[in-house]
Amino acid sequence: MPILTTLIFLPILGSLLLLALPQAVKATYRWVTVVLCLLHLVLSSWIWHTFDPQLVGYQFIENTDWITMALGQFGIVSIDYSLGVDGLSLPMVWLTSLVMLVGAVSSFEIKTNEKAYYALYLLLMGTVVGCFVALDLFLFFLFFEFMLLPMYFLIGLWGGPRREYASLKFFIYTLAGSVFILLVMIGLYLSVIDPAETGLSIGLVSNPAEITEDVVAQVQTLIARQQIDPAQLVHTFEIPYLNDGRNFVPESLLSTLAGHEIFGLSARLVAFLLLFIGFAVKLPMVPLHTWLPDAHVEAPTPISVVLAGILLKIGGYGFFRIAYEIFPDGAIYFAPWIAGLGVLSIIYGAFNALSQKDMKRLIAYSSVSHMGFVLLGLAALTPEGANAAIYQLFSHGILSPMLFLVVGVVYARTHDRDIDHYQGLASGMPAYTGLTAIAFFASLGLPGFSGFVGEFFSLLGAFNSIYIPVWMVILGGFGLILGAGYFLWTFQRVFLGKRWSLYEESLLLDLNFREKVMLVPLALLSLFFGILPGTVFSITEGYVMEFMKHFN
Amino acid sequence: MNPELLLWIILLLPFAGFLLLILSGRSANTWSGWLGLGFSLVGLGFSFQTTQITTIEVTHTWISEALPFALRADDLTRKMLLLVLFIASLVQLFSLEYMREDKNRFRYFAFLQLFVGSMLGILLANNLLILYVFWELVGLSSYLLISFWYTKPEAVLAARKAFLVNRIGDVGLALGIFGVYNRLGTLDFSVLTSPEFISNPYWTVIGLLLFCGTLAKSAQFPLHVWLPDAMEGPTPVSALIHAATMVAAGVYLLARIFPILTPDALVVIALIGTITMVMGALYALTQTDIKKTMAYSTVSQLGLMVLAVGVGAPHAAMFHLFTHAFFKAGLFLSSGSVIHSLHHAGHGFDAQDVRLMGGLRKKLPVTFLAYTVCAAALSGLPLTSGFLSKDEILHEAFQATAHSWKLIFPIAATISAGLTAFYMAKQWRLVFFGNWRNEHIELESVHESSWLQKLPLVVLAVLSLPFLFSLNPLGEHVDLGVALGSTAVALTGIVLAIIRYKSVERLDQLTDVPLLTLDQLYQTVIVNPFLKFADFCTWIDRVIVDGIVNGSAKSQVILAHMLGWLDRYVVDGIPTGTAYVVGTIGKMTRRFQGGQVQSYIVVTMLGLAALLIWWTW
């Protein structure tokens, strides 16, 4: 069974199925969604289980020719439907299944136009998975762009009072970011050759089965000597080919050797910067982050869960898979700057969180701060840093849904998220208080929970980096104090002290069963991965070792 | 038993107790204390077992090969294990009675178990990473226990402050850990003990960063501010965590990393210890709250221990850590006993204010006796354990610093010993002697509590005598000069205090002396500016960053409108204009093609005529 294809199209087919279901069975929409998400989680858990961490490269590969066009002097364009997972994407795929399942349960509170909601929700799920498993840049981009559509409607139709502004801002911001990515894609298309298919097209071999490493090497030599007629070159978007310098046509725009310049900067550095900006919007990184608080504040709780839990991770994933792997020279060149922006995100996000009155805004800014650690760990270009950055993405994918669900609990009861309108909720809402305490302490990096591992080792990786000055690490460490500051301050104001709130006691009841079903597993998972970080590191380590080879 | 398993059991037992209690909820109230006590006693038993084996090590891969989950029990660890579990058992025994009426006491005992587990983790850690993990967990349990009465605003604020101040120290510690890892590629204690470290600035900085951990956890100047506030927690908690064990973890850390501390780093450490010691003693002089005096006294004593490490005598520091743990826990539990008795006698007044006490020795004889022994030990009088350890520190310090400016360290320690004797004598006198000064309740209504409370007091008092530590009550090798000198200083302090407070029988003669504390300074210089800066960041985000975003969006719209105008009137103008011109010409020419044959003939004729004219011209 093509398992990755199943992971992409199971939700998309589910989405179509929902559209076909009559309004009369309205009550089943949510259950169809939950069941599909559950099935999805089982499948991706199975992949995790069967994944062999010892193997180098991608596993569960699926590859089919999709679009092939001869463009005369511009060679032959070959776009493949190419899927696979490795130590980087596997945790993200699993996270997607998990967060979407939690989000689906959280979606029970959506009461209007459920058919469209769940159809869009499942569509979103398919495109997100597609993003993580696509090995062809064109395919990736397709999913990356398509994702905006369901997200735009999910915020714009089911959101809060300023939903139009927020959804439009989200849409345009991300779209602007992806234009940069598109530019680089065109550049890459012009520069990179698929040596295997080129071998076929020049008649070196006659049958795809005969392609061996020798043939590839032979073609690469021919490319280097420019002995192939440009019309016979097969251009590709396959990511595994894009990150190998030998597949670049000499003299092409993005070749490592040609040294083309744009505005006085090497073309490769410009390309890296463009990709960086594109994904930095998604992460988001200060100062490209202001869409995030608005989107979160307006989005309904389940969409916030999904947004923070997975969509942000695509930014981090893009850094690794695309910007860094394809342009390692750019990553090295800009490393101190990227680390600086990471630290800026950590500190600036934390300070902003400190002064928020709206709990959801606060959590949104905390996300900005936490994503700063990803940048810092990544910029370090050390094994510890890279592992920690992936781990931080994963950990935040568990903790941020928890944080948004926690805020969703009060919001569902009173439609008010103002910190100053509550006090001493601990009396009377013990389960809620306990789970919030876990979410907060785990997020502020308490050892034993997953948040600690990501933050601590990002900093450690940055400290060991030859590219990052020590003062940045110290500032980053300062972010740990601020993190404790805003979480504890909020916890103290809302949960501790004498019970008081603007609302009637009868409104503020403790967690119901559905809320516990969402929060408790997340808390346990954070604890599990915090105590046994090796479960994630054993998967990512192999990838990181390969990743680091680009930088030596 | 398999030694590795033994370590795991010792470490995990309290965590199991924590989970069991916290998940049982209020149904555990009745048996929670007994369960906690039982778990600690079992742990104590297992810890005794470790003494029969030499060093035990356990290593499991955790983060990576270089960063394993490593436990180790050597001599120092074993002694500390016994100390922590022993005091924890006594404190839980004491708490059975003390917390009897609290309806959330399952949480109290659960958090105590969490604390014990985290503390044991610090002791058992065999590398700095594991130590850091439990170091932070200890901070968490301290937070949870200080804010145990979470409806009390002061307690809640104190808890937050404790956690945040400790976080500051933790970040320093973390940076120090990064520095060690960066140079050595490992965080193993065994590597830290090899004496290869030469005196270079890098290791001085690393040593001081690691010392930041001590600074916060052991309440050293300038991060001591959280400890006095932490007294808002239940008194047995103060005894266990904020006097005997957790705050000593900083000293333990210094003893562990002592080999990598360079001479320069040690001077700074000694200096900080001295400042803390003197400052703590001075603050303790002026307090009227029975627990606050103890808190500042603890700050001062921790300063003394840190000073001892700073002058190169970590073993003397550890010795004082042990003796102090017993007599300070004894003092706190005695105070707790006083507070508890007053609470039971009546409400509506501050049961911790020594101005509202007096003459309690007749009503609380056991407490009085225990308090007296422990106070004597704290004052360092001969025939107590405090005498042994304090004199060892003084002896070592005088020896190490002779003939240099560093002589001020032992001199300051001697002076602060005098201050210590003074404030202890003052409190001893105000609480147990003189007239009853509380108008809210009758002295007659005050009674000693049950044996559950008295037993721990007696045990701790007995352990404040020298016999556990030395067969000779004056120590194995007495430095006569130091012994006589320090005893004289202590006695002077006591005599002065008794004379000074002899005639105090009225409240107004004992007012709180307002002292400048660092709290106000921190509030104005750090906290408030931080919050202002946070607001400023939000302003930047809203006005500048979002302003640029929305501004560019608006300019896009304006540009779009301009383009729209351009499109309609200029770009579209060309085809429209062309069409207009063509249309007009067409209209004009249309007249000529009306389909009337007559007009065609006329035009043709005219044309022909024109041609002919042109031709013949």
Q: Given the structure, what is the number of helices of chain A?
A: 22
Q: Ranges of chain B with pLDDT <50 over ≥5 residues?
A: none
- What structural category do the secondary elements of chain A indicate? mainly alpha
Which sequence of strands runs across the widest sheet of chain B? 1-2
Q: How many DSSP E strands of chain A?
A: 7
Radius of gyration of chain B: 39 Å
Structure report:
The complex is a heterodimer of chains A (552) and B (617). Chain A is mainly alpha-helical. Chain A has helices spanning 3-20, 28-50, 89-106, 114-133, 137-146, 148-158, 163-191, 195-201, 213-224, 239-242, 267-282, 291-298, 301-326, 328-333, 335-354, 359-380, 383-414, 430-443, 450-464, 470-495, 513-531, 534-549; strands at residues 59-70, 76-85, 234-236, 261-262, 265-266, 422-423, 500-501. Chain A has a domain at 334-552. Chain A is built from 22 helices and seven strands. In chain A, the strands form three sheets. In chain A, strands 1-2-3 form a three-stranded mixed β-sheet. In chain A, strands 4-5 form a two-stranded antiparallel sheet. A two-stranded antiparallel sheet of chain A has the order 6-7. In chain A, a hairpin with a 2-residue loop joins strand 4 (261-262) and strand 5 (265-266). Chain A is globular. Chain B has 617 residues and is an all-alpha fold. Helices cover 72% and strands 2% of the residues of chain B. Chain B has helices at residues 3-24, 29-50, 75-98, 105-124, 128-146, 153-184, 189-192, 201-217, 226-229, 235-244, 249-257, 263-286, 290-310, 314-345, 365-379, 385-401, 408-432, 451-463, 480-500, 518-571, 573-590, 597-616, and strands spanning 56-60, 69-73. In chain B, strands 1-2 form a two-stranded antiparallel sheet. The model of chain B has no long low-confidence stretch (mean pLDDT 85).
